[in-house]
Amino acid sequence: MKRMTAWLLAFCLIAASILPVRAAGISGADLPKNDGAEVENDTMPKTNGIQMGTEAVPEVNGTQPGTGAIAGTNATQPGTGTAAGTNGTQPGTGTAAGTNATQPGTGTPAGTNGVQTESGTAEEGGEQGNGLGVDGLPLTVSGNTLFSLKNAAWNNEYAPSDAKGSVEVIMRNVLPISETSNISLNVTLEDKNSQTVIGRGQVALEREPVPHMLSFDALPAGTYCLKVTEDGSAGANFGFLAYEQEITVKGDVQTAEIHTGFVDLEGVDYKAGFHPGVLLIGDANRDGKIDAADKEALMEAMSRGENGVLRGDPNVELTDLDKDGKTDLIDLQYYVNSKAKLDESVQNSAVLATRIAPDAVKVNINQSNTVVEGEVDNLLTGETGLVKLKSRDGGAITEDRPVEIGFNLQSQEMAQTNEYAKVESIAISMGENSIESGVVLIETDTGTITEEIVNGEQALEGRMMMAQSLDIDNMKNTDNVLKIDLRGQIAVKKVIIRITGTKKGGSLAEISKVEFLNDMEKRISEPNFNIPEILTLTGGDQSFHLAWKVQPNVTGYEVEVGYNGLTEVIRVSSDNVEVKSFQNDKLTNGVSYSVRVRSVNGTWTGKYSDWRTVMPEASSRPDAPDGLKAVGGYCCIRLSWKNMKNTDSYNVYYKEAGEGAFRKITDIKGNKYEITGLKDQTKYEVYVTGANALGESNPSIHSEATTITLKPAQMPNYKLINESNGTGKVSAHIVSATHGRGAMVTSPLDADSNSALGTVDKDYGSYYQILDWDDGAVYVAPNKGILYTLDDYYEMSYITFAEPEDIASYAKVSVYYYDEQNPNGKYAENVSVMQRTDPNGRKFYLIKLAEPVKANKIKLGFSRGYNLYNMTIAEVNFYYYDSLEDDILALFADDLHTTLKPEVTEAVIDALQKRLDTIDPKSGEYHPERDMLQKELDNARILLTTGFNDVVEIYSTITAAKDKHLGFSGLNAWQPLGITAYEGEQIIVYVGHNQLKTGSNSALKLIATQYHAESGALASEVATLKVGRNEITVPSIQSLACEGGGALYIQYTGNNSNDRYAVRVSGGAKEPVLNLYGITDEGQRKERILSYVKELEEHVASQEEMHRQIHEAAGEGNKVNREYDKQNCILGATDIMLDQMLMSVSAEQILAGLGGGTTQERADKLAGSLQAMDEMMELFYHHKGLTRDESAPATDRMPVQHLNIRYMRMFAGAFMYAAGNHIGIEWGSVSGLSSSVPVQTDGNGKYVSGRYFGWGIGHEIGHNINQGSYAIAEVTNNYFAQLIKSEDSNSTVRFRYEDVYKKVTSNTVGKPSNVFVHLAMYWQLHLAYDKGYNYKMYDSYEQQQANLFYARVDSYSRDASRAKGGLRLDGGSDQNIMRLACAAAEKDLTEFFVRWGLVPDEETIRYASQFGKEERAIYYLTDDARVYEIEHGVSGSVKGQNVIGAGSSVSIGGTPNEVRISIQSTANPDVILGYEIARYSYVDGMPVRQVVGFSTDTDYSDVVSLINNRVLSYEVIAVDKFGYRSNAQNVGTVRISHDGSHDKSLWTVTTNMVSAEDSADTAEDEDPCAPETVSAIHQVIDGDYAKDYNGSTISSDAVVMIRMNQVLDVCGLKYTVKSGTPIGRYAVEVSMDGNNWTTVKTGNFENKTGSHTIYFENEAENPWIRTYDAAYVRLKALGQSTANIAEIDLLGPTGDSISFGAEADSTKGAVGILQENYTYSQGEFIPKGSLIFTGSYKGNPDYNVVVIYDEEGNIVGGVDEEGALNAQQIILAKVPENGMLGEVSDGIWIYWIEPDIMPDLKGKTVRAQLYRVDNALTNEGERLVSDTMPLRIPETLENIILNAGTADN
After folding, report:
1. Orientation angle between helical segments 1159-1183 and 1082-1106, nearest 10 degrees
2. Per-residue model confidence as pLDDT tens digits over 693-725
3. 1844 versus 1744: which is more confidently predicted?
């Protein structure tokens, strides 16, 4: 189809009339006269601001309006274009007939001689010759100029005869390929005769039509073959045929521009005229030709897809021609286009453009007046920079002192044969000293042309009336390039550039390049891509808000967010968006994100805006820092804490314990700090705050630390072997000490590089250091460790060592000894190392050997814990063996020390006690392990009379080794020992085993925990225990200013069910423990619970006294020796162990949750709550597909580890939390664990009564048991919370189904921002496929799998091989849940997920496609609907029935953009869930369906906010409670044509008025403070036009301010009053910030009810409407203290529009038969008898096109066999001042079909559609922007006359 844009010169339209015969004329129709005669100005009617009728027409730019000629847009014959919508190519926009006497490629303009002769007669004033110039315009030649030419022999030297040429290839893509694709092409030039490759290159063409040039230079005269082929090395190519073209070069430059498709471009004619070359696309089977086989391949591929679209990898699918990931109609259209052109025998070889080769020009200098610096010959290539021209006498260049350079374009042979070079323009590139004035003299075959240079540009005198194609902008001196236009291609011999002045006025002119060109660039207006302009981009708290200018003719927008190399696209329908997450994670404050936006209209997408960056920022002060840890050093304290969000810096506060005020250190940038300059051996209290621009946080929890001293650690001297010989001297009995890898520091004794005597010199200032974490303890080697040689063999079992300064602990020590039996050495077995603390707080380490050794050499290896790469050893002590410890331990007969040997008597114990109480006479010290050994003797005395009952059996069934199949890891295998121990306390842990020997390594780890801990400082793995006796020092886990320590646990790490371990602890304090693990006997459970409650009561009652006895006696400086605090005293711990849950919480709070009553009543209540916990966990795991059924596969077995709910400190913003191996709750939440009530159900699992804990517990448990393959934090975990909250009703779900319906009918891409609405997606799958009630439990694994949807989902998540069809879980959480859901349902659920905003990828689509489509609309299902189905079955379904009654209707509502749908249904209302509302718009004549809402009522309002001027048909489908749909029923058609009213959903409104309708709620439990008064002013933006707001104020002006919460284009305001007195005098103001206001309109509203619309003015207050960017609008009632307002609307631009008929609200003249020929442009006319359609439009005629379709979607007039449209059209518009067509208020279109092909349309209906394109070169970006209501064609068509001014029948 050919599009013809009719331009009217001198900026006005020539009026015409469209007159049906025997009907009144249509006045003011903007059509040109049919005879081309001038229009009489005094007879033109006045229309649309153009003076018409009897009034005088003002002069515009010196030309009377209406005197210009109508310009068409294409000189080709009508009917040769291609139909819009059939091949994606829009009608042509070629050169206007009558606007340029020069046709493209035809040389000199018609009617001109193009030259100025030298033989003319002299004029007065001394000028010679006035011969004819162009179109009779005189060209003047000065005498000086003529004289210079006649005396220009210096320019006679010929050009070379053997000039070399070039071939330039310009490649350009004109196809709308995918943005991520490139078309990779190989370009080769071969000698035609020899077929030798002359050169080759490669280009990669992107989406935009950007030119890429390759040049093949220095070519001898000859014929060459240019070849362009695709490079398919990176995958499947696009399917282009190979391109070949012969090019003859003869000392010139031949340029071939080659496109990837045909373009409908001004002056381009592929049959006979100028055109670029074309790569033909469509070889879908890659057989090297385009034929029917390619069409079959495309059709076959599309048939394999869904809805005619085959999705696949573009690098694999050959039929995906545009590489957008799918084979569809676009790919087929590519084939059709190319095949049609081939069938037309069009020329796809490029018409070559020629220019003179540099080698074919001789540069000459007038040496009489000019001196040259530089290589003048290189001026033709521009290769060597500037050439400088100077006047010979050195003076300034002037008119009298010019410089001249010449160019001879003829070789001697050319001169002899009268051949000439062809030149169209000259381009002169210059330096800073550019040409300001002069002349260019061109000697042609007929004379000389003179072009003056004035002010650095070609003079334009005498040329302003030249042809309109003359590109004035192109001739300007841009980028220091002077362009001389010769008005067409002429024959040139020589050129002289005579310079008479330079820009800087000096003696120097600089030229870098001179080119002789043959092609002028064509001008075309820039395309409109509807690129949104970002107006505001504001960072919020973990969010940002983006707003942009509303774009006309679009249906939505895509926002792309980028961060750290990743991107995410959000599709929205409004002009703003708030972004809160990225890649499923919350945004991070203080981090920069990139964002851009583009417009969307159906499948069309515009260009993105430029990237902008935004940084989310905190909206409040920071949270208090978490995880503060303080460690004392020498006169310093080292602090570390969690790096907090929203924190710019930190402040540290510290004071000495007991002082009053804290000292403050500010502006700390990191999360570590060292406080220096402190006292040694002093306790300090510290805390940290965070700060940002909004202030300082609350304090962190206070911590404590004690500085250490540099006094040496006081290691035991009891029975010391290497006694001191004096400080700095080698101690006694040491012969030598040597090391391997490390080094000695400040040790005078160790001059030898391997000597280590400084470690036995009693001087802590000399020490051994190695910067590694291991030195022979873990990884042994000959060069690791320190070897000590003694002077004799000594028996020993103890060794100690210490550091110069305490750095960190040592985890392991190896001992390699040399005795008489092992002279080559041997490793000691079961060596243990224990940390000890001396009275000054210094640490040292005690090495114990399991058996004493008698050695003369000992090598020690050391290893740090925590991989700290720094180990230091200051001193090592060796001790004589003392059998006392072995003798005491020998009293016991078992590893648990629960039985004495038979021979033990009280006398034996007394003897050992005496030895233990004996002081070593030499050192004066007791045995270093006296306290521990005393405990053993005390135990022995107890065993003489009684026994121990505190042995704990360890369950070998509880182990992480058995839970590796689960796919989640939020469990732990801790088993409580019933002991709490404080930090630094020394305890003994005894381990017994049924088989292992004493001293063997066990599979048990001791876990020490911190009571009421922070999440990051909960536990420490103290040791892997050995069978037998284990001496343990309880470690410090945190440094908070509270008690340190907590409960102890055992973790079994093995996987052997036959292991039998028992553990006993000596030391610590007993905590109450209730162990119900594996207890199924109800009587035994009750007995244990009752016993536990009794113990709990006693324990809580005595807890404070126990604290006084145990903790306050722990010694000065111990962290438990402080004032009693019930929330932090570690004695308050208790553990309750169930089968699936371990609760480690506060004993007092568990007791509090049991309330009052007797012990038995409390026990019963606890039993019920623990039963509820057991049942809840069973329910959760049941829905996860986990079972104890032995028939289940291993991957579906129940966990053996526990979830662990612990009493913990909350971090910032947390009420509860889930961590890696526990769930943290605070003090106030603990009591809820003992007060829950089991849920009671009927036999089918229907809820009756009871409750399972709160939402929070279910939510946090969900975090820890979420399947990792599809988990989304804060969403999928809520499934479990919802499961225990639901009572099988809509009222008990956490979301609103109204919000669900909004999402699933929004047609938006992206997950819901509200986590509860997002939860509904997962919940609906449960509703759709679980047929039992929520609490239904199944007896077998088979039933569980058959009846529970998520049991199958999670089973397949754990073992994908069990699902059908090759399930892959490698797509991320969104793709994985889609695939898993399809597998579990065995249905294709892609429609469900697309409705929810998810986008299935190729693999997801492949997997889903193997299943049948889910026919139910499950995205509408509710809890109530599911219950209805369970209880009633599916009887009464409306599936496939006609239930929407004929009484249903649509109408325009209270506002022009509101469509009201009234539904009449004949179905049983009890079975109806609701009604799906869909609207149809028409694209390419065919209806396109879009779901817009779902209503549970029979009335629905569709507010159409984005599209305008469109016809919409509405369809209603009833959906029953089973999810089945009725047949669809069309309920009516409307045309939306509103005033641009903006959507108000985000608005807020305030006023200075009060109203009797203002209200305030009363206080209640949920809102205990008195609520503020709520103003009724919100009524003015609620969409209700039937009720007035009545307000008053004590001030003189009543004011209403609207805050849009986004930036909008606002050009008007509509004020509606229903019944009260309207506002009189008013003012409207707008603002971007709410502070600075601009008045945009003042006036008086009419004194009447109804709507009043006003439009805003510009600063000049002329009649033109102005659009303002505004975030606030304020309406003032000036001088009025009261106001009545029903509604306020804000208006924006309304977009493109089209209608039938040239008059508003009338279809007169819309269709008829043309009575006589109508000439619309010179040589162009509409023939008499044509079927003609007319109408009006609003838009941009340069980018609009009209298409008319019949009721079956066929283009009216049809297409020919090549697919070209038979109909033709013109679009009429006023030409703006700048000559560029833009948006216009209105215009006229004419669409006609010539008589010989006129279709029979009588009685049929047609509709017109208005399209817009982006790029007039490629017609890329076609989209529908407006359409008309259907027009019924009458049986008898009226005759129409198109007339210039008046109408005659």
Report:
1. 120
2. 888 999 999 999 999 888 899 999 999 999 999
3. 1744
